[in-house]
């Protein structure tokens, strides 16, 4: 069987584009980690020596990083003056820590994900997976960077506004529970927006809970959802980018249902993915499939879970929720490039 030369050329081009993407991700991470993006923001054209002096970083590394970021299309370069500049549009996403549009957390995930790649490859042959603890504290930091700005800016002021009954309950002193709370950003947003409410977070990772306890007024529990006492019940339970990670998703949803008050709400946020694979041929879904293999799916399988994967999709999400006994389920009309939003009631 003969090879089409043009298609072969396209195949090789794709190999190098993807490899360039991998290398670019690593170099962008270095810019986030070292503060180079922030140092270039709004400073116009800079020489490599000037940037190294400004950041007190080693000049030879700074110089090579600048060249790599020019080659990747992140920086502008003036060959006559041999200066580099960061376009405002790129700075908006890369030098905007603590905002809802900062993307540095995505790149901060690259080292912990690639660090476990050999163990993921082993799991292909032997089964099982990579436990969450094996990703280390750098992964906890990266996850916090990914979500922090969005949760602080959008969670209470935008996302929850699509459920006015929930907002009313919390303003009146209701109770909210965030399952898989991580570093506690959802709880902090809820506590700040609804000072009369009681806010609780639960997560099995002790490192995450230690960080969460530094964020504000919420109460935090180390453990699974079963460790949370119902008390008077909760008006809102949230599962934010968590459902697809669970080792026992249906059981966890059932436990959440038992903790809800009458006519209370389960609020679910999941990565934005279509139900059909052919509709997931895009950069966002590709990123999520990578996150799935190197983090979400494998850490679920490591605990004997089903390994649902990051690209769960609306139909599979609804099926899980209804299996757990919820009679009402709807996808919320909230605009987002990366997330899907659902509300469910028993």
3D architecture notes:
The chain is an alpha/beta fold and 346 residues long. It folds into 2 domains: 5-95, Winged helix-like DNA-binding domain superfamily/Winged helix DNA-binding domain (Arc Repressor Mutant, subunit A, Orthogonal Bundle), CATH 1.10.10.10; 113-345, Rossmann fold, CATH 3.40.50. The chain has helices spanning 5-34, 36-40, 48-55, 59-71, 88-94, 104-108, 110-115, 117-126, 137-159, 164-171, 185-193, 206-212, 249-259, 283-302, 314-323, and strands at residues 76-78, 83-85, 175-179, 198-203, 219-222, 234-240, 260-271, 328-331, 339-345. Strands 5-4-3-6-7-9-8 form a 7-stranded mixed sheet, sandwiched between helices. Strands 1-2 form a two-stranded antiparallel sheet. The longest helix is centred in the first third of the chain and has 30 residues, at 5-34. The radius of gyration is 22 Å and the shape is globular. The model has no long low-confidence stretch (mean pLDDT 96).
């Amino acid at each position: 069987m003969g090879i089409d030369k043009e298609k072969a050329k396209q195949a090789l081009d794709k190999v190098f584009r993807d490899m360039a993407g991998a290398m670019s991700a690593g170099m962008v991470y270095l810019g986030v980690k070292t503060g180079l993006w922030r140092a270039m923001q709004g400073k116009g054209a800079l020489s490599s020596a000037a940037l190294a002096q400004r950041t007190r970083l080693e000049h030879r590394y700074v110089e090579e990083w600048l060249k790599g970021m020019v080659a990747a299309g992140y920086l502008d370069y003036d060959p006559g003056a041999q200066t580099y500049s960061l376009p405002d549009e790129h700075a908006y996403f890369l030098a905007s820590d603590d905002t809802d549009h900062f993307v540095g957390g995505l790149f901060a995930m690259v080292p912990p994900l690639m660090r476990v790649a050999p163990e993921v490859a082993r799991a292909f042959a032997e089964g099982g997976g990579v436990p969450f603890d094996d990703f280390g504290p750098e992964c906890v930091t990266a996850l916090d960077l990914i979500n922090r700005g969005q949760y602080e800016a959008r969670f209470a002021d935008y996302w929850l506004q699509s459920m006015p009954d929930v907002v009313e309950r919390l303003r009146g002193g209701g109770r909210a529970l965030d399952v898989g709370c991580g570093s506690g950003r959802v709880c902090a947003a809820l506590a700040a927006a609804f000072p009369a409410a009681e806010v609780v977070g639960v997560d099995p990772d002790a490192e995450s809970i230690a960080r969460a306890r530094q964020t504000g007024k919420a109460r935090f529990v180390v453990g699974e959802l079963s460790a949370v006492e119902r008390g008077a019940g909760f008006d809102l339970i949230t599962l934010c980018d968590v459902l697809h990670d669970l080792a026992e998703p249906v059981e966890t949803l059932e436990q959440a249902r038992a903790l809800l008050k009458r006519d209370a709400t389960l609020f679910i946020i999941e990565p934005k993915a279509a139900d059909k694979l052919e509709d997931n041929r895009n950069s966002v879904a590709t990123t999520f499939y990578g996150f799935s293999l190197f983090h979400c799916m494998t850490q679920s399988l490591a605990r004997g879970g089903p390994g649902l994967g990051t690209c769960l999709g609306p139909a599979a999400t609804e099926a899980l929720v209804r299996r757990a006994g919820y009679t009402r389920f709807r996808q919320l009309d909230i605009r987002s490039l990366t997330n899907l939003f659902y509300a469910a009631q028993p």
